[in-house]
Every structure is written in C-alpha cells, then in structure tokens.
C-alpha cells in the first residue's frame, strides 16, 4: 500500500491536492474517515440529489469529488488515522484492523472542528453545535424542528437560511455580542471578498424577511430540560432576562483547527491570537517543521473552503517539486493564480475574526459549567486547581483528568486554557499547545499488537 | 428516554427503509445515514449514561470529535455512532455507565 504521497482528509484541501499531485505523476493515497469524500463542508455531496435548499456553494463541491476519479488516486474511505510514524508511515484503522501506508511525502488536511461553546446545560440531550445540525441536513435529510440558533458567526446565518428554505425556520436567533464597529477598519481589505460579503448580507435579509425573532448582545446562557423533554434556554440582553423554550438549542462560535495529528508528531505550532487557537507553523507552501510533512486547509489555520482548495493545490505543487517532478519555475508559474485566489478567499477573514470574536464568558465559563465533557470536570474545580498550583495543561490533566477521556481534550482544551489564563493572569499563548500522544483516536491494544513489531525491533 | 425527535424530515428526503434494533425496539434508518442520525430521528432522549455521574447524553458533534455518541453495535462496545453507517439488522445497545475490560466479543 505504498504511495508517493499520503493525504489525510478528503475535504476541499485534500481533494484539490490529490488531483494536482496525481496529474503531476505521483501515486496518491487519500485517507478519510467518512464513507464519501467531501469533508464536512461538502459532506455527502456526491450522493445527494434534489436538495436545492442547501444552496449553490454546497453543490460546488461536486467537481472536487469528481476530480478524485484519476488512476493515480486511491481513495480509502472510513480510514481513521491514529499515528504518523517517521519511519513506518501513516497508520490508520478500519473495521477494527490497522494498516500502514508508507509514504515519501505526507499532507495533513484534517480541517476544522467547531469551537466548544461551554455554558451551564450544554451537555444535555437537545443541545448541539450548529455545524452538527448542518451535517444532519446534508447526510440524512433531517432538519432541526423548533430550534433556536445561538452564538455568533456567519455559519449561524447560513444554517438559519437553509432551515427557512427547508420549511423549518428557527424559532429565534440569539446572537452574542458582535464587534462590527470594531471590525470596520478591516473592511477595506474585506471588500476584495465582496461576493462573499454580499452573500452574507443576502442571508441576513432572508432571515429578516422570514420574521425570525432576533436577539442581539445576548449573554449569561443557561439551558435546562423541561418536564416534557424540551429545552428551556435562559439568557440576558443588557439588563433584560429572557426565557425561551425550544426542541433543540444549536450553538456556534466559529471553528478551530483540528491539530491533534500535527501536534502528536511534535511539529512546531504557534498561537493565532486573532483566531484564538493553536495551529502548526507553516511556510507559504504549507510545509511544516518536518520537510516531508505538509499541512493544507483549515487544519493549518481557519480560512474556509475556497482558501482550503487553493492551499491544497499549492502544497501539491511544492510536493511535486520536492519529488523532482516539477522544476521551481513551473511550480512558481502555476502557483501565481492560486496565490491570487487564496488572497481573495482570505480577504474577508480578518474582518470576520474581529467582528465575531469569542466572548470571554465562553472561554472561562461560570463555575457550575461542565468543561471536560468526558471526565465531567466543572469550571469551578478547574479554577480552584489553577489557584492551588495546577498552572498548566499537564498539571491540570494529572490533578483533575481534564482531557484524559476518549475525546482527548478536543472538547475542553480551549476552555481549560481560558480558565487557567484567567486564574493565573497569563495570556493563552503561554499555556499551550497541549502535548498530544498517539493513538490520536482510540484503538484497542489487540489492534496495535496485530501490526507486529516496529521495524527497528526486527533488525 | 422516549422524548420526541428534535428533527423532522426535509422536503424530498428518502424513505427510512432500513430496520435497526435499539435495546429491543425497532429504529428506522435511511440508507447512507449514520447510526447517530437514525437514533436522533428516533428519539430526542439520551443514548447513553456517562461513566462518571450517570448523566444522560446524546450524539453531539456528528463528526467524530466529541465521543458523546458511544454505543454498543453488534456486540462491539464504545463505537462512535456518528462514524458508522446504518445497516439492515444492526443491533444497538445504549451504554449505561462504563464498559468493562473484556466486553469485546
């Protein structure tokens, strides 16, 4: 199963890179956790017909999926990567059996996850991220019934518009404080992304036209289950208290890079203060601190689908050059239009990051909030531990088990960092990234043992 | 546990032609959807109780990140229901508390 290039993740970055690399003469193995290529943004796009209500941007992913139909590309669906080993290659699991894909070059395109939105009650059945509801719309033809959309960010508007188009409008939109005025200085550059800006304004107009109640500047979130299994959602706007009832409470405060794989390899990472997240340190081609390992797409810093597509193609050109299949002049010539596309795609990002920044109450939530969903550790106990010596992620892990459950910190690390930062009055940039160890997704000991001894042990 | 589903079918959604069993109760699923999606269409209630406090949880992130959708499928414990496609005749059990070592068939 050896390949010149192993790509992890079949979203826009991974799919674009696979096509460019295969056309350039490399054999490509494309590993992806899902049944079908597309990633989360184009989830199920190859299989869904007649769902016009999801919009034209979604349908655009179809061409990328068709591009995988190339003799040089082997797409391995349902493949969960749990280790990248410098000597052996990429190790992945399917149906309880692990496989090793040796590779001269590796491209990590694992994309983003939603930023956790912790507040009292966020663990109850009936609360989900807005992106999760969108996955259900794309994959299962299910739409949220009597749902409230809460938080901030462009995805909330998109999901609201899709729900309206599907005939299941949200009962309310509850928006946390936005900083549009504060973001205005970044607007001139944002105008290069005018079509996207206009699209966003169109979504907002559709939500207004549908008459959806819209609460702005909301804070003090709290959710409880009612006697009949529905959700009561309490929040405040200014000095006013509100209490709404819904079937489903959807939350969203943007997305963050999925960096467990890159961190588990010990690659260099840096803190992105504007996006409030850690990301691998990359050169303009997506090359990491390991020369043969590249990162493209949202996993290297949030930029969205169009940016991911350009970054994937740029990384593939650099890998073709590294493999001796493309000279530097050819690489640079083909990169020029991609860099222009990337610049256009990213022009809106600084404005969005500033306008929809994360309110501090969701970085350091009230004491009773469960922060680590797996080990059920509250914000109060984390604050207390931070004040009595657990002043870092590792110390917190050993004293309270935060991040030691099956999700391995994916759902709590941003909050644990926020709470320690608050308690010790240190910036978040000094408190991470947390050390991640393999396996980055759970596998059984039997499955690891069945792989046999490491190469160095056999010599 | 039998709260009404928090979702409804979108216009033009395919029929639920597959039959799964959840703790002895039939659950219908659409070809191509995940087990977690079928469980959410079936009920708005909890699909497991946590090992630490016994609190009820249901599928959350739907993309393999949060591990809140863990169920037992055809005897295999701790399977992420959002990462497995529904298949005819699957036998699913809610997980009440932690699995024991050796529960693997």
UniProtKB/TrEMBL annotation, chain A:
Classification via InterPro entries: BFD-like_2Fe2S-bd_dom_sf, FAD/NAD-bd_sf, FAD/NAD-binding_dom, Metab_Enz_Cyan_OpOx_G3PDH, Opine_Oxase_asu/HCN_bsu, SoxA_A3
Domain FAD/NAD(P)-binding: 4-312
Span of domain SoxA A3: 371-450
Classification of source organism: Bacteria, Pseudomonadati, Pseudomonadota, Alphaproteobacteria, Rhodobacterales
PANTHER family tied to this protein: ANAEROBIC GLYCEROL-3-PHOSPHATE DEHYDROGENASE SUBUNIT B
Family matches, as SUPFAM superfamilies: FAD/NAD(P)-binding domain
Name of the protein in its database record: FAD-dependent oxidoreductase
Keywords, in A-Z order: Oxidoreductase
Residue ranges of the TM segments: none
UniProt GO molecular function: oxidoreductase activity
From TrEMBL, chain B:
Lineage: Bacteria, Pseudomonadati, Pseudomonadota, Alphaproteobacteria, Rhodobacterales
Source species, domain of life: Bacteria
Organism: Gemmobacter caeni
Protein name (database record): 2Fe-2S iron-sulfur cluster protein
One annotated GO molecular function: oxidoreductase activity
Keywords linked to the UniProt accession: Oxidoreductase
